[in-house]
Design goal:
Largest sheet: 7 strands, antiparallel
Strand content: 25-35%
Number of strands: 10
Low-confidence stretches: 1-17
Shape: globular
Helix content: 25-40%
Strand order of the largest sheet: 4-3-2-1-5-6-7
Order of helices and strands: HHEEEEEHHEEEEEHHH
Distance between the termini: 49 Å
Length: about 250
């Protein structure tokens, strides 16, 4: 009986030690709360030349005219060839990568949304809302919300600068956390995107805020140094972009 009691006590002590939270300084939390993903866009202008790279490595350029979507993800896209001026339709399965430019209307809306929430001033970069750069998309086969039959889509990559191990895609139907404020004044807090599509290795999944802890080991568990510094019980969903960026940096060394 004494032996069982001792073993149980050691197990409880070990679990307690393992579950101990890491305490971060105010400066560290501010750094972790930065939003490093690119802005997600849902439109494409027909005023600028888009680039389409097919799976056979041929490249086409033209003006985006229309597309077919499912839950905001692109199933097919039609462009007007820059030389022949003839319409050409591509299925998502035919395209490896493409680069589109968002409309000025959407960029203005994103800029207004940025200004309307004071939280953005300390966590995001205004320039990402009004970018003049082409937005990258890539071919990906995925089950929408992890519920639908898998299909091939063209999905916007929102971490192209640090996607060596984990690629994050824009979810056009993602909701955001609520913010508070007064009429006519910038809001406080809220505005945190609740879901993305994420790829690591050969697995692509819809990752929601509520499932973050359950998938933490899948995302970061193969880097012991990272897990020790950022255990799942010490971080928040708000830190996702920072965590993926830092995991990438630590995994490269």
């Amino acid at each position: 009986m004494r032996l069982k009691t001792l073993v149980l006590a050691l197990c409880v002590a070990g679990t307690s030690t393992f579950a101990q939270k890491v305490k971060y300084s105010k400066e560290e939390k501010k750094e972790m709360n930065r939003y490093l993903f690119n802005e997600g866009f849902d439109t494409a202008t027909d005023k600028k030349v888009s680039t389409f790279i097919l799976k056979d490595n041929t490249e086409h350029q033209g003006y985006t005219k229309s597309w077919e979507k499912q839950r905001g993800q692109i199933l097919s896209i039609t462009m007007e060839d820059v030389d022949t001026r003839k319409p050409v339709k591509f299925a998502a399965s035919e395209i490896s990568q493409m680069y589109l430019y968002p409309t000025e209307i959407e960029k203005s809306r994103k800029a207004g949304k940025f200004i309307s929430n004071m939280r953005n001033y300390s966590t995001k970069k205004y320039s990402k809302s009004v970018t003049n750069e082409a937005v990258p998309y890539e071919n990906q086969t995925v089950s929408l919300k992890n519920k639908k039959e898998s299909k091939t889509f063209l999905m916007q990559v929102i971490n192209p600068e640090f996607n060596e191990f984990i690629t994050v895609y824009h979810d056009p139907f993602a909701s955001e956390t609520m913010s508070t404020g007064f009429v006519g004044a910038p809001a406080f807090g809220g505005g945190v995107i609740k879901s993305y599509y994420v790829k690591k290795g050969n697995k692509v999944m819809w990752l929601h805020k509520d499932d973050f802890e359950d998938n933490y080991d899948f995302l970061f568990g193969d880097n012991a140094e990272f897990m020790k510094k950022y255990p799942k019980n010490s971080v928040e969903w708000n830190y996702l972009s920072f965590l993926i960026y830092t995991y990438t940096e630590m995994s490269q060394s």
